[in-house]
Amino acid sequence: MAKPLSDPEEFVRAAYNECLSHTDYLDSDSAEDRRMREMFLLNLEYFMATLLDRKDRMSMAHGLEVRVPFCDYRIVEYAYNIPWSMKAYNGREKGLVRYAMSGILPDDVLWRKKSPYPKTHNPNYMALLTEKLTALLDSGSCRLTELVNENKLREMLESGGKSFTKNWYGQLMSVPQIYAYFLQIERWLNEYDIIIQQ
């Protein structure tokens, strides 16, 4: 991969292409099925790993062990080859699973709108992250600026995230997520005493 620190766009594109190069297709796949396989793999390799890590940290911090039966590798391998039209049966997310559970789960549970995880839509979360990131920049000991342009970061904070035009997460709440990610990078740099070589 080329120059992750000096050319982030190129780095992201290279990581994206590398992941997609491992996609397995069937000869019978339509263009839509091919694309959905790619999306499945991207979610599996990137987004799901982050969600599972967060789930483990949040639950174990409170002495809980969460079970995620749909993450069983046998189900994942099987689901990978189910055509998208069946997965999204009747145009609904998890449509096939919903249909399979008809008569077993109550309809109000079976057909309720999906609730994203983990997310918070509380404006206090955004305010807290903004406050923490601003205090970090003002502290005089911010290591994050070894990787991120301080002026751009301050511009983002002052605009309430409106200057942040890329949605790296492909989800809602992208601004609080990027703020939290910056704070995680700062902690990682300090906790492991990472040395950045230019």
Report on this model:
55% of the residues lie in helices and 0% in strands. The chain has helices spanning 8-20, 31-60, 73-80, 84-87, 95-100, 107-110, 123-138, 150-158, 174-191. Helix 7 (123-138) runs parallel beside helix 9.
Indicate the topology.
Blueprint: H1 8-20, H2 31-60, H3 73-80, H4 84-87, H5 95-100, H6 107-110, H7 123-138, H8 150-158, H9 174-191
Helix pairs in contact: 7-9
Per the principal axes of the C-alpha atoms, what is the gross shape?
Answer: globular
Enumerate how many helices there are, as a single number: 9
H/E topology pattern: HHHHHHHHH
Uncertain ranges: none
Q: For the report, how would you describe the main beta sheet?
A: none
β content, as a range? under 5%
Q: Can you give the mean pLDDT?
A: 86
Over all CA atoms, what is the radius of gyration? Answer: 20 Å
Amount of helix? 40-55%
Taking the alpha carbons of the first and last residues, their distance comes to: 16 Å
Count every beta strand, where a strand is a DSSP E run of 2 or more residues: 0
Structure class: mainly alpha
